[in-house]
Amino acid sequence: MQLTNRSKVVVNKQLSLTEKLYLPAILNGLRITFSHFFRKKVTLRYPDKEREFTAVYRGMHVLKRDEEGRENCTACGLCAVACPAEAITMDAAERKPGEEHLYREEKYAADYRINMLRCIYCGLCEEACPKDAIYLTDRIVHSEYTRGKFVYGKDLLVEKVNERIDVSKRKIKKAEVAAL
Ligand code: SF4
Ligand code: SF4
Q: Is residue 103 assigned to a domain?
């Protein structure tokens, strides 16, 4: 049964004189190659130039802090339960006296890991989080040589106190989803 008409019947015919010379075929190939020099390039000279992402782009996660610099995450585990790729794991711990300036609530994530190779950037962890703690950002996950380096811990995920990451656009989107 023929599914498309794109198939080509190959025949064992003798090459013509022009085909035997190969030169016309080579020149035609070069013509096509040179014609591409003058077309608009679809590629960018990354990392010197970066492509602008759309507002809905979902990239590397961030674990947010509150206005006072305390970690929002309470290690409730809802993001891990919601994750269809089982990419999130964590260890919970109880906040000790004197740590109130570090963690917003009595329970916090002593360890929090996301396996970026498993993640499918669906955003369900963000939607499941009741504490405004996890958001996907427009930051890209960089390439690595070993699989282990793609398991991101708190050192890469928690935002720095003096280097806040703006997630206001995603917060608006989350509110819109909640209102539906
Ligand atoms: S974006 Fe989706 S796949 Fe990735 S960690 Fe969150 S829930 Fe899991
Ligand atoms: S990121 Fe949010 S949902 Fe996940 S454990 Fe922390 S508080 Fe819970």
A: yes
pLDDT, tens digit, for every residue of 100-139?
999 999 999 999 999 999 999 999 999 999 999 999 999 9
Phi, psi (deg, nearest 5) at residue 108: -145, 170
Task: Please give the distance, rounded to the nearest whole angstrom, from the Cα atom of residue 108 to the centre of ligand 2.
Answer: 9
- Pocket lining for ligand 1, CB < 6 angstroms: 82-83, 85, 87-88, 114, 119-125
Residue 97 belongs to domain spanning: 61-179
Provide the H-helix boundaries in the chain. Answer: 17-21, 23-37, 78-82, 124-128, 154-157, 168-179
Q: 32 lies in a domain?
A: no
Site residues for ligand 2, CB cut-off 6 Å: 73-79, 90, 109, 128-129, 131, 133-134
What total number of domains does the chain contain?
1
pTM of the model: 0.77
E-strand stretches of 51-168: 61-63, 88-94, 107-115, 134-136, 151-152
Mutational test site, ligand 2, from 129, 154, 174, max ligand atoms within 8 Å of CB = 129
Q: Domain holding 122: CATH number?
A: 3.30.70.3270
